Amino acid sequence: MSVDFKAMVEILLERKPEISAEEIKKLVDEKKRKIGAGYLTDQGALFLVAADLGISLERNQSSVQRLKDLYVGARDISVVGRVMSIYPTRTFMRKDNSDELRNRTLTILDADATIRLKLWEKRVEFPEESGLRPGDLIKLTKGYVKSGLDGKPVLNVGEMSTIEVIKEGIMDIPTLDHFACDISKISGQTDNVVIFGKISSSPRIVEYKNIRGQDSKALQLNVANEEGTKTMRTIIWNIDESRLPKILAVGSKINLVGVRIKQGNAQYGNSELEIHGDEGTSLDISNSAAEPDVLALKLISVGKDLGTGYLECLAFQKDGKITTLRIDSNLLKTSLSSGSIIQCIPSMILGNQITLSRDDSYISEIEDDSSFPSIESLETKIEDITDSDRPYLVEGIVLQTPSISTVTTRNGENISLAETMLGDDTAEITLLGWRDLSGLMTDLKVGERIKISGVVTSTSRDGKLQISLKPYSSIHRIG
Fold first, then answer.
1. Residue 1's pLDDT band (boundaries 50, 70, 90)?
2. Same domain for 102 and 45?
């Protein structure tokens, strides 16, 4: 038998692992016997056998390589892989001149390994042009392998390369479900996995500086298993809010495709491991409602625009559920005040946070509605405050003169911190005001009775529960 024949047999064995090499040899001999001696070579008979098995054996398929066999410097590479992550296009300047370059990264996998695949220039449009989605199979020919910044191989699509979406069955590569994992089964750090569970805390968007010093946003939430016996803190970095579902509700089922499990910070959550994703991570959410409905809300407090373009407010619904409300300042034709009732169509609902943006929201002030509960009925006694993601309304007496100090953050920024003790007839708790919010506390006097609308909980270094002011918070003196 020739070398070509052996290579073709190997391809057939990969595609049909349930058939042995000995069985293939018997099928080839049988095909030659039926057709007649002298009419077929071994290779010719093998093509007919493969056709009977529903497999197309082309000679160039012998060059298809497994991802685990790729090495830095390899050229003229042909691979088939399943897409796990699709990253947005990145634009940067050449170091040697002012030319602008564009590239884009995909993460692909097969049964043995995972690798990054880099698209350049015109090829960055391939995902949109082909309708590419996580889970699709793609075939790349004439690719080349270079070293990434981390020293790992990166597969590149060059000018002479071809890339296409192919049908299932051409290569035996596991589906993404094969890599899916319930968080109760997670036991160690790993990369490129699919996690499924349910949202167990109110999702929120936080702003930060990324590694390039650019303003960016992250989605933070907790994900639990179906039974609720295990919870993991989850952060999706460099999140694009426009790619998020309109509603992220607590209790919704969630699939996170293309995340990694890393050692967590003991300061957070109840797990030593955390789920981390990035702009290549895709979220699949099962919601009872795909689009926000019309909501009626009664305002508890109206904060100021702190330079974000949004007013931070506190409001509640007719069922008494307290929510934070971010209103694009451009939406407002008149000023709002505590006690106002609005009717709105949100652009996004993240757990307890409702966002009204200029482009896809509606808001109008309506007349008083007696079906709303009283604000006083929403207040919580201090002993009933628990560590949760909901805002609280609290009434109490100032027990200490507020102390004002300067705190240095991890990035070297000096910020103001005000601290005092608040008490009622059930318990006492520390009240904090960070940055500009410390100014709300500087004039508080010992013995004053106050109502605070909108505080959130956190845990101090010694493990004690404390409450902090937020941009939507307000403090009112009583009597």
1. very low
2. no
Q: Beta strands 465-477 and 428-434: pairing type?
A: parallel
203 in a structural domain: yes
pLDDT digits (tens, 9 = 90+) for 222-249: 999 989 899 999 999 999 888 888 888 8
Cα–Cα separations (whole angstroms), residue 196 to 186, 273, 284, 466 = 11, 15, 9, 32
Q: Is 274:235 a contact under the CB 8 Å cutoff?
A: yes
pLDDT over 90 percentage in the chain: 40
DSSP 61: G
Residue 266 lies in a domain: yes
Which DSSP symbol is given to 359? T
Domain that holds residue 303: 295-366
Using only C-alpha atoms, the chain has a radius of gyration, in whole angstroms, of 30
Considering the domain architecture, whether residues 211 and 280 belong to the same structural domain is answered as yes
Indicate the helix (H) or strand (E) that contains 4. Answer: helix 3-15
Q: For residue 418, tell me if it sits in a domain.
A: yes
Angle, helices 3-15/21-35, rounded to nearest 10 degrees: 110
174 assigned to some structural domain = no
CA angle at 336 for the pair 330 and 341, rounded to the nearest 5°: 115
The structural domain count of the chain equals: 5
